[in-house]
Amino acid sequence: MQENRHHAAAGETDTALTARTVKETSSEYAELCLPNDTNTLGNMLGGHMMHLVDLCGAIAAIRHARCPVVTAAVDQMTFLHPVRLGELVRLKAQVNRVFRTSMEVGVKVWVENLQTGVVRHTSSAYLTFVAIDTAGNRVVLSPVRPETDEEKRRYDEAAQRRAYRLAMKERTATRVES
User: Fold this and answer.
1) Which of 39, 56, 67, 133 has its CA 20 to 30 A from that of 9?
2) Pick from 33, 32, 130, 45: nearest CA to 79
3) Rounded Cα distance, 140 and 51, in Å
4) Start-end of H helices in 66-148
5) Nearest 5°: phi and psi at 161?
6) Cα 38 vs. chain centroid, distance in angstroms?
7) Alpha-carbon gap, residue 114 to 89, rounded angstroms
8) Strand 20-21 to strand 27-32: parallel, antiparallel, or no bridges (unpaired)?
9) Which residues have a Cβ under 8 Å from the Cβ of 8 and sit 6 or more positions away?
10) Tens of pLDDT along 136-161?
């Protein structure tokens, strides 16, 4: 795949890439758990939860890239508490770090019982998105600028996760070749 040096959105001139803050990439999404979203136990299907995580993460990634993105990887995703029929799923995502043409997005999920008001953290995931242009070529991304201590921690940890992902990818490629 050919890489573009940078992306010029509609109305933008061909200038140097400008950093965006983590806050500028923030995305929030909420959805009720409806009967079509549940298994026979009345709990939200794991695949539907993964879809919502991908959607909320993609919104944050697009806010940063200002162009289409594709999901390249999803790190481990655990389901700490079930989401039951009639409960509200609340998701929040932000870009943790930008590399060159890819970015790590963190997504956190809560479930809220609307009758009792009890809110519980139910899931977290890290996704890697790649920015592409309309021809499918990778787009070089603007950097992200963490401002708070929490954003700086996530920024640093994203580099560690990326190193691990790349090492695992190399290890898998070596096994396939053997």
Assistant:
1) 56
2) 45
3) 26
4) none
5) -65, -40
6) 23
7) 10
8) unpaired
9) 14
10) 999 999 999 999 999 999 999 999 99
- Residue owning tokens 């806010």: 63
Task: Name the percent of the chain lying above pLDDT 90.
Answer: 79
Q: Which residue has the tokens 């691990």?
A: 164
Tokens of 11: 């109305």
Question: Which amino acid makes up residue 81?
Answer: H
Amino acid at position 42, single letter: G
Domain ranges in the chain? Answer: 3-177
Give SS3 for 80.
coil
Contact in structure between 124 and 109 (CB atoms under 8 Å)? yes
Q: Enter the tokens of residue 12.
A: 């933008």
pLDDT in tens, 114-136: 999 999 999 999 999 999 999 99
For residue 51, give the 3-state DSSP assignment.
Answer: helix
The whole-number pLDDT of residue 166 equals 85
CATH class of the domain defined by 3-177: alpha beta
Structure tokens, 148: 């708070």
